[in-house]
From TrEMBL:
ATP binds at T63, A64, G65, G66, T67, G68, K69, T70. Belongs to the LpxK family. Keywords: ATP-binding, Kinase, Lipid A biosynthesis, Lipid biosynthesis, Lipid metabolism, Nucleotide-binding, Transferase. It comes from Dialister pneumosintes. This is Tetraacyldisaccharide 4'-kinase. Its EC number is 2.7.1.130. The keyword Metal-binding does not apply. Transfers the gamma-phosphate of ATP to the 4'-position of a tetraacyldisaccharide 1-phosphate intermediate (termed DS-1-P) to form tetraacyldisaccharide 1,4'-bis-phosphate (lipid IVA).
Length: 364
């Protein structure tokens, strides 16, 4: 078990033993230091924050791990294009080879970089959202100016809630209903990236994965949000399976309808922030799950990984291996058993889309 896996398991332990309690106390000390560091960086960055000539919409979260930022970004691009806007996406490109120096993953016409250079999520967005520039680099103020020079008239700042060097016009914060407040502790004791008072900065909260919890839990989450911020809009969203594609057809963007694969036995493989959510969505699609393997977030697959996954899938009695689109950009063909990709999309409930459109319309 990796250190990361051990800590995640320990964070969720309800009855820790003596040794576990000592480890948690140590992690609490690290969390205190982490919190002090975050506050210091935020104050410094906000004093130096840059305002650019076009509106900036930040999409971020308060916890580490997968909350649904990428599906949300893609949904917002769809909305903006329907409104006649020309958006560009600014993202860090975590673990991509151009993370430090920056680069243009795609322009208005084509993809310009590989997944290894761009990073898995930026490359996936470039594939799924054609004719929309995607720019990577930790210096997103520089990316913003490059995007404006390319003709973008509105910018989407991916994972931007803790990026304070670029001023934004709308701050959207995603709250994962399956783990909304990160165990109530800062990293590494819990999953919070900032203290909960940071929610006062948000303009919109989007509850994600609402389909995976009951109404009572959702109501409690909303009440908790309002304790910190009763001015922001709160929107509910759902992440649902949108299609299933063979690895080969996924590269060609050829869909296969969900009903064609219902009740097939699937072995799950993923390297994402919230693998349990992937399993739930896979079950919603109609798959029978025979087993799974979870790699660290942003994992880069090598031949030995594929060999291990293939053997585990066969031993479990699976008909297919099922993975995410984020993983697929770093996968390689598997010959012994079919490899499928589950496509997921986000939809806003009620008048959520109207609220977002009205706020965008009000921007100058």
């Amino acid at each position: 078990m990796s250190i990361e896996s051990y800590v995640l398991k320990l964070q969720q332990e309800k009855n820790p033993g003596i040794i576990e309690k000592l480890v948690l106390e140590f992690l609490s000390g690290l969390s205190w230091l982490y919190g002090k560091g975050v506050n210091k960086r935020r104050i410094k960055a906000q004093k130096q924050a840059v305002k650019v000539s076009v509106p900036v919409i930040s999409v971020g979260n308060i916890t580490a791990g997968g909350t649904g930022k990428t599906p949300c970004i893609m949904k917002l691009v769809q909305i903006l294009k329907h409104m006649g806007k020309h958006p560009a996406i600014l993202t860090r490109g975590y673990r991509g080879k151009l993370e430090k120096v920056g680069g243009i993953v795609s322009d208005w016409d084509k993809i310009l970089l590989s997944a290894q250079l761009a990073g898995d999520e930026p490359y996936m967005m470039a594939m799924k959202i054609p004719h929309t520039p995607v720019l990577v680099g930790k210096h997103r103020t520089a990316s913003a100016q490059n995007a404006i020079n390319m003709g973008a008239d509105i910018l989407l700042l991916d994972d931007g809630f803790q990026y304070w060097k670029l001023k934004r016009d709308i701050d959207i914060v995603l709250i994962d209903c399956t783990n909304p407040f990160g165990g109530e502790h800062l990293l590494p004791r819990g999953l919070l990236r900032e203290n909960l008072e940071c929610m006062q900065r948000a303009d919109i909260f989007i509850l994600t994965k609402t389909e995976q919890v009951d109404s009572q839990i959702k109501d409690k989450i909303i009440s908790r949000i309002k304790q910190w911020n009763n001015q922001a809009f709160i929107i509910k969203s759902e992440q649902k399976p949108a299609g299933v594609v063979t690895y080969e057809n996924w590269k060609k963007n050829i869909p296969i309808f969900l009903e064609n694969i219902e009740n097939r036995k699937a072995f799950l493989v993923s390297g994402i922030g919230n693998p349990s959510s992937f399993q739930t969505t896979s079950e919603m699609a109609g798959f029978i799950i025979t087993g799974s393997i979870n790699f660290p977030d942003h994992h880069c697959y090598v031949n030995t990984d594929i060999e291990k996954v293939t053997q585990m899938a066969i031993d479990s009695g699976a008909d297919i291996i099922l993975t995410t689109e984020k993983d697929a950009v770093k996968m390689m063909p598997i010959s012994a058993i079919p490899l499928y990709i589950l496509k997921i999309e986000m939809n806003f409930s009620g008048c959520g889309e109207t609220v977002i459109k009205n706020l965008i319309t009000s921007l100058k």
